[in-house]
Batch of 4 targets.
Target 1
Amino acid sequence: MKKCKQCLLPAAVPGSQIGSDGVCGFCRAPAAERASVQPNPAHRDDLEQTLRAARGAGRGQYDCLVPLSGGKDSIYLLHKLKVEYGLRVLAYTTNIDLPEVAWSNIRTALARLDIDHEVFNPAPAFIRKLFRYLLQNQEARGAVYTVSYVYAPLFEGDAIRLAIEKDIPLIFAGYSPGQPEPERMLYEFSPELIRAEDWTPPQLKTCGAFTDEELGRFYNPLELPADTRFPRYLAPFHAWDYDQDEVMRKVAELGLVKRGRHASPIVSNYPINWLMMYSDLRHFGYNPYAPEFAALIREGKASLNHWRIMAPLVDFMIRRKVLLGRDVSRSQHWLDLADDDLRINLPEGAYDPPLLRRQAHDAGRT
């Protein structure tokens, strides 16, 4: 597959515009236009003020809560908040099909940092039903977008509920720049989204496949008492300078993972994500994470040489369902889905709550 020689963006990505010189339109653009997400000085100032004021200021036992997936970013964030800023941190994990490498990272980091940890184990039947429905009824942007942007509000909502229950004023997420979609979050979830928006995906409400009890798994602040104290939900790596390779190096150097390779997002990935990438490769012809990593390469936040080797290797494993790509077959077996069951049949935005659609419209992204 033809790719940009400077950032590895596949030619199949809409808007790639790879010229005869082998360089994509994003790399040819002026530097100010190339960056996907640049740290905003106002965000940096707010974050530093918030962190300084947060130390020992939590209304309960903890100053902040960190959703912990076992990946490099959430682990490194734990270290910075506990060690560099001296905060009382509670780590929180929603256990949905995490790989053993992620659990090893979690155990190693928590022991090293001496941090409290809570785990929620959702009912397996509901998770299986949800993933099956989403993969058979994908919206136009494909499997990774569809599943991630329904699953993410589940664990984000769980974190908000836990923070409210324990009176924790701050939630810090280990999202790297560009995650999630900018119209959904740039540094902070809007207060309106946390205080006044039902997070239940509209398509799930209207499709008739889910019970009221199952839909109740999604966070809905409209059902909470009027005097509820809501937390702020921030993504510090949107405000700090971010370098993917540096984060991978630091978590290994600090002993927060057992082996350096455990810091790689390839090996700590959710098993279901391999099936999602497989579906998108079949439908679109390129890995859905390629644009994100290409943006990091353009900005000097990820290694061109590393991903020049790893990106085609990952795609090979996915397409052939070998090595780490065996999780494609495992997930298909778990969900009882054949290749032809992985279908795109809904319009873009089918699962987006109304506020997210309004924000996307305001940003000119509809």
Note: Residues 248 and 298 are 18 Å apart (CA to CA).
Target 2
Amino acid sequence: MVSQRVLNLNRLGLVLVVFVVVLGAYTRLVDAGLGCPDWPGCYGHLKWPDTTEEVERAEKLFPEFPVDHAKTWPEMVHRYFAGVLLLVVLALTVIAWRDNPPNKIREISTALLILIICQAAFGAWTVTLKLWPQIVTLHLMGGFATFSLLWVLYLRQGGGRPLWLAQAQQLNLRRHAQVALALVIAQIVLGGWVASNYAALACADFPTCYGSYAPPMDFAAGFNIFQHVGPNYLGGLLDNEARIAIHWTHRLGALLVMVAVAALAFRLWSTNRFLATLTFTLLAFQLMLGILNVVWSLPLGIATAHNAFGALLLLAMVTVNFAPAADAADMQARN
């Protein structure tokens, strides 16, 4: 029997994680990753320094990081939401173990709690290691993984019924769905590497890059995970050919995702038209937002939406792979 308390906390967690993921993207895009040079506070404050006296004292403590209010508040608000999410998942896990719900709810909630604790550590390292791109990318992936695991937990409790997929095995979709999910995850990792290395504008035109389909690229430098980081990584340290290699690889990945996910949506049509239509729509919007990021030089709203739709497309693939099988009556009612 589903625990109503766990389900309610699960819903609250899903709402909070949306804010955490979007605020995380916004913080990164406005270069506020080091808006607070310490952790978990901000210049030694629980909030952030806002009076003249507090700012003066903060800048004496951190003379290499002048206070910029346009960057302190996004960073701290992101931390507040992440902290509340941690408390919600902690409560969810405790109640799940007490209520003993079915469908491995306890195990999933425990894994979720461990993941969020790791996320807190990555958040701290993002600041203390001064935006080291490997940590920033892992922190992004942790956020998307948290969103996905909360969604799986919700599906296991009967949530999102209109999205449920009928027996994937009967239509031989399992392998296709797994490949599509793997490609979407890989593309998100590449997107994180693009963002953490400031390579989003390495190519300023589309579909070519500086008028060429084979621009000069340095893959060795672009994908060197042992790269040296200077005093901090704000703005990136790679040369343009290395950034082009990262950017161009992300574009090629988008082509693979487009083919795999569009084909999956087409095959889903006979089983679940709602999920098929939603998947194709999310894919189309994500591709459009990616193109607009290039041709419009990374406008803040479009870039933030690109992160959000990437998360939603991932959830669609998670749904195809992990949602409970719908029975015949459910299918008939939907289609």
Note: The radius of gyration is 21 Å.
Target 3
Amino acid sequence: MMFEHYSKNKKTLFFISISFLFIGIAFFSWQKFFESESPISCTAEARLCPDGSYVGRVLPNCDFAECPPAENFKNPYMEKAIADYLLTQNDFSWKTKEGSYNFCTIKNLDPEKELFPLYIWAHCGEYVMAEGELENLSGSSGPLKIDYPNELSYYDLQKFSYEAPRDGSYYSEDIKKIFPEKLWDKIFNFNRTDIIKQNEAKAKDEIP
């Protein structure tokens, strides 16, 4: 009987040990699971995208999110050529201060249209860096009709031409003469905030 009692105690201790082992494993697994699920926050930074929108940092590595796909110009060389052309024109590039820099940013008002004439909104500004801060000295913003011979070649800035609406009471009348009717509302209600921010971002990046 003593041997039988001893054996029963031994079996009981064995099952208790096994139970504690499984409880320990379960607790360790539960703790690791919730540690891995604990919230992680990224720094509250933002990056300006080419379309004027902003993206922040995202998990798991806190990299900046991808910018939305560009819908401005399907041909980036065309976009750059038009902006460069405007900088050769006195109406869009001028100097009010020694050492200033001029930049132009353009928005395609009719992205589906691939052949000239093209209809754009242009924002051009004159900037300087003062004590590490960007200062806007002067600027011009408005809709333009851009024309160029529809030929397969490198863009020759001398072959571009533009037509712009007059100011004041002539503005509305000229919009309806120069631009197709489907663009009238877009032009009259154009929000300049994003294109101004894009031009400022370009100036900050490129002014030495």
Note: Residues 1-8 have pLDDT under 50 and may be disordered.
Target 4
Amino acid sequence: MRKLVLKMAGSSMLRKTVKALRLHVPVNSWLHHFPVVKTLPSGIRYRARRVESLALSAEMFDENALYDITDSPADIRTFADLGCNVGYFTCWLCDRLKNTQLKGLMVDANAEAVEDAQWHVEQNNLHDVYALHGLAGLPKEGFKDFFLHTSNVCSTATPEPGVSADSWTRVQVPCLDIEDNWHKRFGDTPCDLLKMDIEGSEKEFFQNETRFMRRVKTVLLEWHKCKVSLDEIVGLLSPQGFALKKILYQNEAAGTAIFVKNTVDAAPNVNKP
């Protein structure tokens, strides 16, 4: 069974066939009880409890195909990962930097994914990294609807039109103030790297979290074209001092880009209204 699961993760055609036949349901059940656990050359450990997580780990760790931090203007000591899923980006970052002393926040609206993110924190002794369950970028009071997808990499605050209702489960998730959570744990420390994959809530975040954005130096952003355009993102970030540095990847549905603040002074007037 283990060999079959690992082969499945490495083949996109096999993954699609498995999904079409709904074979991922028993496979995910098996993985939940017998997760795949691997150790990277740096000693960072990660686990996969779903087929989707195995596929994501292959892209991120084996192929190194998803992210690039070479254009960051300074050493990365602090980070925030919004839409962290199971926490692989934190593992990838610690592995690439050869550093487990990073300070950071991981945030996701999927409680099961946050459970995995917390496992990665504990297994890798990341004493200054915190995994939080909640929504970022929305008004910071009470709870909001969130839609869990049958695939844990597709959940969203605003489900795409035309997708079968059977694919989504509506849940209530607390809204988080990222600036307040950051300041509570790290004081006025700047955020060297903000990684965002929040499935269409980018505009709301940049509009509602201007205080937090004052302390951010570099933004690594995935945007979803059906919900926001790159021009809209540029229009929101430019007044906050960010310039588009590089587009890492782009297709007809989404893209990944790096934005760098024009000045990298350490969080001036970060608590100014």
Note: Residues 66-261 form a domain with the Rossmann fold fold (CATH 3.40.50.150).
